[in-house]
Amino acid sequence: MLVKMNEIEILDGNSYSDERGSISFNNGFNASLVKQIYFIENSSKEIVRGWQGHKIEQRSCSSVKGKFKINIITIDDWDNPSKNLKIKSYMLNSNTLDIPQVPRGNITSIQSLEEYSKLMVLSDHSMGERKDEYRFNINYFNE
């Protein structure tokens, strides 16, 4: 899960189906650095969680049910970030198990694109291990 500073890598997943059922997998993901796993389920498709991120912590995520839009911004100044920073958008679908790896120095916004969607988030830091959570108003950055 170690990602170079500010480089967002998408690890493409895949699936296989036969008469027994199906398997979704991502053979390129290295889970050896994962210290925390949690799930996000937005209460509606209109809710956008964000902007939130970390200077130090790295995260990866994958849709385990439904579809999500993940927006990622690399922060230039944590005390007073530029309002026109580039926003990179990714669509995640539980059918493919794609995993964007969000490196330290980035913030995200997360929106469900289908009702009852569920996002798994994996972090390389335990909860409370460091004071490293930054939040910005959802309307702060120009989209």
Question: Topology, pairings included?
Answer:
Elements: E1 9-11, E2 14-18, E3 21-25, E4 36-40, E5 48-54, E6 59-65, E7 67-74, E8 87-93, E9 99-102, E10 106-112, E11 118-123, E12 134-135
Characteristic key phrases:
single chain; 143 residues; mainly beta; Jelly Rolls; five-stranded antiparallel sheet; globular; disordered N terminus
Question: If you had to describe this structure to a student in words, what would you say it looks like?
Answer:
The protein is an all-beta fold. It has no helices and twelve strands. It has a single domain, classed as Jelly Rolls. A five-stranded antiparallel sheet has the order 1-9-6-11-4, with no helix packed on it. A five-stranded antiparallel sheet has the order 8-7-10-5-12, with no helix packed on it. Strands 2-3 form a two-stranded antiparallel ribbon. It is globular and about 55 Å long. The N terminus is likely disordered.
Number of helices: 0
CATH topology, by name, is Jelly Rolls
Helix content estimate = under 10%
**Rg result:** 15 Å
